[in-house]
């Protein structure tokens, strides 16, 4: 299992017209080692920024992020070989006309021989039940089929870690269940953000992100309960008797 370490990592960006940079993610120190980790929180809370730190799509403004001791800035190529990333909208990730071509494109660097590349692409599509759709236009596929295809294209190169940014957002109930079963069967370490709290409950560890920082880190049921209370407190009018939930203790240190 890979070990991902954020050591006082923060993300800030310059904004036109403002004297000070905008903070997208406050300074965080985390050690991520579990097989299945979830990140939940409201839109704009910092979930996507946190996930993008993990494979170098976003560089920390301060602090460091490492994957098995490989720094995401100084060794970004090695990190991206180890950490695959699946975006919310598969159409932002699928760049070829058909699924077969997209998976072959993913394999182009690691498999030089064209015939072997085609064989491995076909095997990957078959693994995900997509072989019958391999030569259809990606625009003819359902949302669930596209999401599985994007997942297959990333997993074709066998990363050690799979990071998914809200993978179920565009899916109906049937395809959400298909995605859950697919993720449950993977050998890779999986780190995902989601608004699907049932999916979050299936995981080993869940982080709650709010206002650009991790406000809870722990067991899934406790994290989901905290997040529900946080949302309820945010909806209540002042004086209604609900206060923003507070941790009795800081987020626990992980070994």
Can you tell me about this structure?
This protein is α/β, with parallel strands linked by helices and 255 residues long. Helices cover 33% and strands 24% of the residues. The chain is built from 8 helices and 10 strands. The chain has helices at residues 47-53, 76-82, 99-107, 114-127, 143-155, 173-184, 197-201, 220-235, and strands at 4-13, 22-32, 36-40, 62-67, 70-71, 83-86, 161-165, 189-193, 205-210, 213-218. Helix 6 links the parallel strand 7 (161-165) and strand 8. The longest helix is centred in the C-terminal third of the chain and has 16 residues, at 220-235.
Labels describing this entry:
255 residues; 6-stranded mixed sheet; 4-stranded antiparallel sheet; 8 helices
Question: In short, what is this structure?
Answer:
This protein has 255 residues and is of the alpha/beta class. The protein is built from eight helices and ten strands. Strand 7, helix 6 and strand 8 (189-193) form a beta-alpha-beta unit.
Helix content: 25-40%
User: What is the average per-residue confidence, as pLDDT, rounded to a whole number?
Assistant: 88
Number-wise, the strands total: 10
Rg, Å, rounded:
19 Å
Cα separation of the termini: 14 Å
Largest sheet: 6 strands, mixed
Shape: globular
Helix and strand content put the structural class at alpha/beta
Low-confidence stretches: 238-242
Please state roughly what percent of the residues sit in beta strands, choosing from under 5%, 5-15%, 15-25%, 25-35%, 35-45% or over 45%: 15-25%
């Amino acid at each position: 299992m890979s070990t991902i370490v954020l050591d006082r990592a923060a993300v800030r960006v310059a904004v036109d017209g403002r004297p000070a940079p905008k903070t997208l993610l406050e300074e965080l120190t985390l050690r991520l080692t579990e097989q299945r980790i979830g990140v939940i929180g409201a839109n704009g809370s910092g979930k996507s920024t946190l996930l993008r730190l993990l494979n170098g799509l976003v560089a920390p403004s301060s602090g460091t992020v490492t994957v098995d001791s490989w720094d995401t800035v100084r060794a970004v190529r090695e990190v991206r070989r180890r950490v695959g990333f699946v975006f919310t909208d598969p159409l932002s990730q699928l760049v070829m006309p058909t699924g077969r071509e997209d998976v072959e494109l993913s394999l182009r660097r690691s498999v030089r021989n064209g015939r072997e590349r085609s064989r491995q692409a076909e095997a990957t599509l078959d693994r995900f039940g997509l072989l019958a759709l391999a030569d259809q236009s990606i625009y003819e596929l359902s949302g669930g089929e596209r999401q599985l295809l994007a997942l297959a294209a990333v997993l074709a190169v066998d990363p050690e870690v799979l990071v998914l940014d809200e993978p179920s957002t565009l899916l109906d109930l049937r395809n959400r269940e298909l995605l859950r079963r697919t993720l449950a069967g993977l050998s890779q370490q999986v780190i995902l953000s989601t608004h699907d709290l049932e999916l979050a409950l299936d995981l080993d560890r869940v982080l709650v992100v709010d206002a650009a920082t991790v406000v809870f880190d722990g067991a899934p049921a406790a994290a989901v309960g905290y997040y529900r209370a946080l949302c309820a407190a945010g909806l209540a009018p002042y004086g209604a008797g609900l206060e923003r939930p507070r941790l009795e203790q800081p987020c626990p240190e992980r070994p």
